[in-house]
Amino acid sequence: MTVELDSVAELEPALRDEGFFGRDDAVAHVYIGYRCSDRLRRSSAAAPPEPCVLPAVAYSLEPAQAPTGSYSIGAWHPSWSESEYADAVESVRDAIAEGDVYQVNLVQHLRADFDGDPIALARALAPLRPLVQQPLRGNGWTIASASPELLLERRGSRVRTSPIKGTRPAGVPVESEKDAAEHVMIVDLERNDLARVAKPGSVRWPQLLAERQLAGVSHLVATVEAELRDGVTLTELLEAVLPGGSVTGCPKIAALDLIAQLEPVGRGASMGALGRIWPNGDLELALTIRTFAIADGAIHLWVGGGVVWDSDAAGEVEESWVKARPLLAAIGAPLQAPVR
């Protein structure tokens, strides 16, 4: 059974009520949606409508399911055209010029008809080496991820995040000043996030601008780690890092407001967290980039990237497709022609 919740704050008490933290034979498979960040926005305007019905938070203590069949996927339909996405990039640049933000992540959304076994689709993503291979299935929905990005790992009192910023097609070096600037901005944000729950002076970043081949593309990866203060709860830890800096921007709260203003639909299963929590408090959560949601006879995918002052609108559009192509190839449903 998958338990559905309305907020991050409900997760820890729900697991405690099940006796989870006293067990040695269980793992909680957890999903946390991006829409949990709505409480952080300063604007009173409504968030964009969600393209599919998903819980805010969900977890299951059951083992992984095996695939039972095949699947088919129809033609992809973006929620906004390339020209509309380019206009949003220019709106972010305008906000940067005004001093409101200095980086904002914008996300495209694709939808297609889906029929068949969602677990089989998750299995098709395995060659991309996702951080969390096990999908999470609930009442009428499934979340399957190919994300290579570590949002948060805890081992005892040590916590670690590995933000990704900077993208090129597979095998192409990530060498531009623009990518390096995006990367360093987000590392600084992640340092601040971990510092909210860390012992003073314990935050460090042993890896910066490290190029890796991940999920079918070239990426720049960093590592930020810290020692937790005594007594930090699971809820406090999750609320310190969610939503992830690499999928929001800097400053984070201002970026959240601008994202809600510009994006035409909600982020659904994307840009949140998916992973595992152990009874001793250890955890491993992937940031749900490169993540699919299957619900109500449709499949959804969200892809995007960080916009900074020297971003080029056409380049940002192409970066989102660079990220999408390996995913769609893996599941046998390539994007035939972007909408202009």
3D architecture notes:
With 340 residues, the chain is of the alpha+beta class. The chain has one domain: Anthranilate synthase (4-Layer Sandwich), CATH 3.60.120. It has helices spanning 11-17, 82-98, 118-124, 177-195, 234-241, 252-262, 313-330, and strands spanning 2-5, 28-32, 57-60, 71-73, 77-78, 103-116, 136-137, 141-145, 150-155, 158-162, 164-169, 204-214, 217-227, 249-250, 273-277, 283-287, 291-295, 298-307. Strands 1, 2, 3, 9, 10, 11, 12, 13, 15 and 16 form a ten-stranded antiparallel beta sheet that branches. Strands 4, 5, 6, 7, 8, 14, 17 and 18 form an eight-stranded antiparallel beta sheet that branches. The longest helix has 19 residues, at 177-195. The protein is globular and about 50 Å long. The chain starts with a strand and ends in a 10-residue tail after the last helix.
